[in-house]
Amino acid sequence: MDFKDVPAIVTGGASGLGEGSARALAAAGARVAILDLQEERGRQVAEEIGGIFVRCDVSSAESAEAAFAAAREAHGPCGIVVNCAGIAPAGKIVGKEGPMPLENFNKVIQINLVGSFNILRLAAAEMANREANADGERGVIINTASIAAYEGQIGQVAYSASKGGVVAMTLQSARELARSGVRVNTIAPGIFMTPMMAGFPQEVQDSLAATLPFPQRLGKPEEYGMLVEQIVKNPLLNGETIRLDCALRMAPR
């Protein structure tokens, strides 16, 4: 898909992988709408890339529908959507204080998995009404999973389940939306320098980097954005989950 003036939506675009994606898409010529709960930072990034910011809770149907309407009014029907909004709290199935509270598990599923589907369903409906290019393509949706979907560590039960669900949606969604000319792919990142990671002491960051086969450093958000750009550009990439992880296979703890 060509990027020039194509309306794009990036959830979680105020920071981390979402910001890297938003900047990459804007630099390629897309008209970017950042959907996030971080208003101050979201508005700042949007101003820097010549896009717009819309406050959005991805786990809420009403909030997401209103955000899509605002983005559509500003830029037109979306042709590119990147789902990066998510949370990654730790918690064991049975901890020192007993079994994990069910609401803790539910919250992660609602934001990471239900939130991803919420955005996907709205994007698919909007893209289906866009004019197709020469290949019959009308839109590209990119979800964010994690290598924890495959090698969830101890304490990642909710996170792993949510990201495993995102992986499981990928091929099915690509097959179903093929009739509309919409491609669906997922990126499963490894260890990246996100704002959460930047808050860790340097020795912790160094110890994590040492577990990576090659290169032995944390990923950069702009490198995530590079893959987003490549997925959008390559019309044959469809129904795939791509690991972006320096060949890391996580140990149990």
Please characterize this protein's 3D structure.
There is one protein chain. The chain has one domain: Rossmann fold, CATH 3.40.50.720. The longest helix is centred in the middle third of the chain and has 26 residues, at 102-127. The strands form two sheets. It has a seven-stranded parallel sheet, with helices on both faces. The protein has a two-stranded antiparallel sheet with strand order 5-6. The chain contains eight helices and nine strands. It is globular, with a radius of gyration of 18 Å. With 253 residues, the chain is α/β, with parallel strands linked by helices. The protein has helices at 16-28, 39-49, 61-75, 102-127, 157-177, 195-198, 202-209, 221-233; strands at 7-11, 31-36, 52-55, 80-83, 94-95, 98-99, 139-144, 182-189, 241-244. A hairpin with a 2-residue loop joins β5 and β6 (98-99).
